[in-house]
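Justification of resources, computational component.

The compute hours requested in this renewal are based largely on the per-chain cost of generating structure records like the one below. Each record pairs the submitted sequence with a full structure-token output. That output is archived, and it is also reused by downstream analysis tasks.
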Amino acid sequence: MTVPEVTEFIERFAAATRAPVRTGANVTSVRRAGDGYQVTTTRGEIACRAVVIASGACNKPSVPPLRDAVPASVEQLTPFDYRDPAKLPDGGVLVVGASATGVQLAAEISRSGRPVTLSVGEHVRLPRTYRGRDVLWWMDASGVWDQRYDEVEDLTRARRLPSPQLVGTPERITLDLNALTSLGVELAGRWAAVRDGRALFSGGLRNVFSLADLKMNRLLDTFDEWALTSGRDAEFGAPERFAPTRAPQTSRLQIDLGSGEFRAIVWATGFRPDYGWLDLPVVNAKGQLRHEGGVVAGSPGLYALGLPVLRRRKSTFIYGIEDDAREVTEHLAGYLET
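The structure output for this chain reads:
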């Protein structure tokens, strides 16, 4: 769906439910008040028995402390600051992070004619389409997206997984590291430290690539197995396997940040939620909401939706939130009846 289509979808949903939507009302505080909550907004106060936090997990860019050691001569941006390549200073650009945002920005900046180096750490490689269908169709149809949070072996890790290397285009192109190197993007390892004005990168890119390729192929095996066991294998093209990620013959282990070679750094190092407006002791030391399947711990009547693997692997998708919403609102309704 395009941005206008998503906007129209939300507007039609609001009209169909006849919910009293308040737009342009920023929430500045949620605090306990008796057996309920007092919500302070820029358009007045709201008293309520229960609150559902659906503000998402990507409110603020997450930038490592390394940024403090970068010389002032190098412009630093986050995805929230970035607009288009023309607004970047002339010269090389270092993009840090190879998940969805990082690969998309690296491709766009490279196409503008600027030399781009991409610092690559752990990532999730996926083809845009597989056997004639969008890869997210396969995630849904095969049941991968329906795996529940209480069935996941390492829930903390699952909730911290990088976003897959996907881009939405009418052509449904695959944007992986092989596509980037074909565009001329240089690949480097994970940015590990800054020493004496030099950015130091870890080696072992081949191992990082091999692990991402292995996990992708295991997922494709899951799709193929589902197609066979469901009796639908004949509906699709033949099983596919994709070329391994090409590792460069040599990769940079360091960059002199003061040399002028790189004039800008784009930190595509993920995002984090913003709960600065939540005046309740429900956030842990890492700034994450403490909850059990969307039921916030230690604050009756407080709930969450739309967080990573909240109740299922599809919890952060508009499409995927429906099942979570049903279960969370059932709990909420039971609470209001007490």
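The chain has two domains: 3-58+273-337, 65-268. The two ends are 41 Å apart (CA to CA).
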